[in-house]
C-alpha cells in the first residue's frame, strides 16, 4: 500500500481506534486538547468525564459488555494516578482496555517539569504491558501491539504514553493496520482428552461458569454440556449472564452467594468443572475444605496466569468455547449419574420455595417508610424488559440481587459486576459504558447503593451529555451500610462514629439540572408506578434515577450478619431440596 502519513500522533491514534471499531472513547484529556482536536474530526463518540477513575470504569464496562477493547484517554501526572483504581479493576476483571496518556516531553524529563511523573513505573504493576512513545516512527507498531495484548491471552489493560513533543509531529504508517480480533486458541488434544476422561468418570459433577466464559456461549453450548453430564450449573458473580438462569439445571451464584439448599450440592459433588474462572475467594467461599475432602477441580482457562493450584484436579488451556465443544464431542453417549440431575432440579425448586419465604419475611419486617429490597427486584422484573443488562455494585443491600432466585436474569439478559477488587462506584460508572456498548435500545439498569451513587454523582452531567439512557435504581440506607453493620458489630449502637445518617440526598435537584428523570419511593405500593414511569423515560432516551428508601436491617438471604470482608453465614437449615 501507499504509505499513510498523519499530521500528528493523535491523528494516527484516532485512525487506529476507528480500525478497532471503537464505539466510544472515555476520558479527560490533557490541557493541550490535542486528542480532542483529532477525535472531533473522526466519527468516534467521546464521553468527556469529570474524573479519570470514572472514565476508566466506563471504558471497563464498555469492554466487558462489548467483548472488545474499551478506550480511555487522559492527561499526565495526577491524571494517571487518579486512573489507577480503575486500571486495577480492569486488570482484575480481565477487561481489554487501552489507556492512552500524555507524557512529559523528552527534553524536559528529569527537570521538574509541570506534572512530571515516572508514569511507566507507576502503572506497570496494574497492566499487562506499558510503553512510552518518544518518536513518531514507533507509534504504529506500539498501537498494534497494545491492541493485540489487550484482547489475546487473558484479556486486560495496556498502557500507552505519548510524549508531548509528538502532538504536532507527523506519523507515517507503511502498511495496513493489522487485524485486532482476539485469536481463540484451541486446547491441546491430549489435555482435552485426559480431562474428558476424568469428567466421564464423575457421577455428581458441577459446572462453574466464570467471567472468562463471557461471550463464549454461542448456541448455548455450555447448557448442552451440562445436559449431557447432568451437571448442576453455578456461575461466579462475574460469570453471570453467560448461561441462561431459567435453565432447569442452573442453581445460582457460587461461593459467597450460595445458600441452602444449594450449598448441599457442593458437599455432595465429586467434581467441579470450572470454565473461565480463577477460583477467586468469593467464588470458592464455603466449599468443602481439606478436612472434608477437597473437591477436585478441572480448570479450563485461556491463559496460564488464570490457573489456581490450591485444589486437586487438572487443567486445560484454551478458548472456553472450543474446550466445551471438544468435551461435548468426546463425551458423546455419556450416561449421567443416577439421580444426580433430579437432585439438582429438586434443589432448584427448593431455592424457589426458600426465596418466597424470605421475601415474605422481609415484607413483614420492613420498617415504615422503607421498601424491602426483594420488592425492588420483583418490581424491576415487571417494569423493565427481560433482556436488560443488570450492572451492580457490591454493597449491603444490592447484594440481594446476587442471591438466586431473588435476582434472576431474564432470557437474553446480561450482567456486569465488580471484580474481586470491588471498588466503590464501579457499577454506577460502568453502566454508562455498558449502555454505549449497545446494541441500541437494550435496557441497562444500574442497581447501586446510595454510598456508591453519591460518589458517582459528579458524573451526572457526563451521563446527560453522552445521552446514556441508564435506569439508576439507588438503594438508600443513609450511607455506607456495610461499614455501618461492621461498626455495629464491634462497637454496638452507642458508637460516636457513624457511616449511615438519614439526611436529604439532594439528587432530585441535580437530576433536574441536567435534564434527567428522578423519583423517590418510600412505600412499596408506589414503587411499581415509579419504576414503570422511569423506564418509559429511559426507553425514550433519557437517563432516570429512582431512589428507594431501604432499611439497614434488610440484609440479604443467608446472611446472619457482617464479619469484616465477608458476611457471616446463617446456620445449616433443613434442606427443602430433599437431600
TrEMBL record:
Cross-referenced InterPro entries: DHS-like_NAD/FAD-binding_dom, THDP-binding, Thiamin_PyroP_enz_cen_dom, Thiamin_PyroP_enz_TPP-bd_dom, TPP_enz, TPP_enzyme_TPP-bd
Region Disordered, residue ranges: 557-579
Pfam families: TPP_enzyme_C, TPP_enzyme_M, TPP_enzyme_N
Domain Thiamine pyrophosphate enzyme central: 193-305
Signal sequence interval, chain numbering: none
Domain Thiamine pyrophosphate enzyme N-terminal TPP-binding: 11-120
Coiled coil region boundaries: none
Gene3D superfamilies xref list: 3.40.50.970, TPP-binding domain (3.40.50.1220)
Residues of the Thiamine pyrophosphate enzyme TPP-binding domain: 422-547
UniProt entry keywords in alphabetical sequence: Thiamine pyrophosphate
Family affiliation: Belongs to the TPP enzyme family.
Protein name: Acetolactate synthase I/II/III large subunit
Amino acid at each position: 500500500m501507499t504509505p499513510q502519513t498523519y499530521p500528528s500522533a493523535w491523528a494516527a491514534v484516532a485512525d487506529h481506534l476507528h480500525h478497532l471499531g471503537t464505539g466510544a472513547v472515555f476520558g479527560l484529556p490533557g490541557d493541550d486538547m490535542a486528542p480532542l482536536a483529532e477525535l472531533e474530526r473522526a466519527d468516534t463518540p467521546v464521553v468527556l468525564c469529570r474524573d479519570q477513575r470514572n472514565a476508566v470504569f466506563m471504558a471497563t464496562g464498555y469492554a466487558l459488555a462489548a467483548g472488545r477493547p474499551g478506550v480511555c484517554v487522559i492527561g499526565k501526572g495526577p491524571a494517571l494516578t487518579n486512573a489507577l483504581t480503575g486500571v486495577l479493576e480492569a486488570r482484575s476483571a480481565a477487561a481489554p482496555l487501552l489507556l492512552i496518556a500524555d507524557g512529559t516531553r523528552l527534553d524536559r524529563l528529569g527537570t521538574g517539569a509541570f506534572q512530571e511523573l515516572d508514569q511507566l513505573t507507576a502503572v506497570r504493576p496494574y497492566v499487562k504491558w506499558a510503553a512510552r512513545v518518544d518518536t513518531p516512527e514507533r507509534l504504529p507498531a506500539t498501537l498494534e501491539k497494545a491492541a493485540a495484548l489487550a484482547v489475546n491471552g487473558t484479556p486486560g489493560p495496556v498502557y500507552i504514553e505519548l510524549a508531548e513533543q509528538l502532538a504536532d509531529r507527523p506519523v507515517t504508517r507503511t502498511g495496513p493496520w493489522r487485524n485486532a480480533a482476539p485469536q481463540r486458541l484451541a486446547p491441546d488434544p491430549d489435555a482435552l482428552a485426559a480431562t474428558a476422561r476424568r469428567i466421564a468418570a464423575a457421577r455428581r459433577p458441577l459446572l462453574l461458569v466464570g467471567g472468562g466464559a463471557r461471550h463464549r456461549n454461542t448456541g448455548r453450548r455450555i447448557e448442552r454440556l451440562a445436559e449431557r453430564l447432568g451437571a448442576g450449573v453455578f456461575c461466579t458473580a462475574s460469570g453471570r449472564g453467560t448461561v441462561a438462569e431459567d435453565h432447569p439445571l442452573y442453581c445460582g451464584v457460587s461461593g459467597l452467594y450460595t445458600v441452602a439448599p444449594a450449598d448441599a450440592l457442593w458437599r455432595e459433588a465429586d467434581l467441579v468443572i470450572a470454565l473461565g474462572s480463577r477460583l477467586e475467594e468469593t467464588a470458592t467461599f464455603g466449599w468443602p475444605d481439606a478436612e472434608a475432602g477437597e473437591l477436585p477441580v478441572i480448570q479450563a482457562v485461556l491463559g496460564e496466569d488464570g490457573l489456581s493450584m490450591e485444589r486437586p484436579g487438572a487443567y486445560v488451556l484454551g478458548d472456553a468455547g472450543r474446550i466445551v465443544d471438544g468435551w461435548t464431542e468426546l463425551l458423546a453417549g455419556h450416561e449421567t449419574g443416577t439421580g444426580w440431575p433430579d437432585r439438582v432440579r429438586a434443589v432448584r425448586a427448593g431455592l424457589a420455595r426458600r426465596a418466597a419465604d424470605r421475601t415474605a419475611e422481609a415484607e413483614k419486617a420492613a420498617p415504615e417508610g422503607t421498601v424491602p429490597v426483594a420488592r425492588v427486584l420483583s418490581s424491576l422484573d415487571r417494569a423493565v424488559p427481560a433482556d436488560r443488562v443488570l450492572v451492580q455494585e457490591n454493597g449491603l443491600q444490592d447484594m440481594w440481587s446476587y442471591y438466586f432466585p431473588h435476582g434472576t436474569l431474564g432470557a437474553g439478559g446480561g450482567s456486569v459486576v465488580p471484580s474481586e477488587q470491588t471498588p466503590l462506584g464501579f457499577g454506577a460508572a460502568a453502566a454508562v459504558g455498558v449502555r454505549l456498548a449497545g446494541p441500541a435500545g437494550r435496557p441497562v439498569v444500574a442497581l447501586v447503593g446510595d454510598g456508591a451513587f453519591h460518589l458517582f454523582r459528579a458524573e451526572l452531567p457526563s451521563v446527560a451529555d453522552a445521552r446514556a439512557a441508564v435506569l439508576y435504581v439507588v438503594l438508600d440506607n443513609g450511607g455506607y451500610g456495610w461499614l455501618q453493620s461492621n461498626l455495629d458489630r464491634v462497637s454496638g449502637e452507642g458508637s460516636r462514629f457513624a457511616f449511615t445518617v438519614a439526611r436529604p440526598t439532594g439528587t432530585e435537584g441535580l437530576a433536574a439540572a441536567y435534564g434527567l428523570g428522578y423519583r423517590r419511593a418510600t412505600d412499596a405500593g408506589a414503587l411499581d408506578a415509579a419504576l414503570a414511569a422511569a423506564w418509559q423515560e429511559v426507553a425514550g432516551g433519557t437517563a432516570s434515577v429512582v431512589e428507594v428508601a431501604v432499611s439497614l436491617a434488610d440484609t440479604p438471604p443467608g446472611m446472619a450478619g457482617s464479619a469484616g470482608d465477608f458476611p457471616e453465614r446463617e446456620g445449616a437449615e433443613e434442606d427443602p431440596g430433599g437431600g
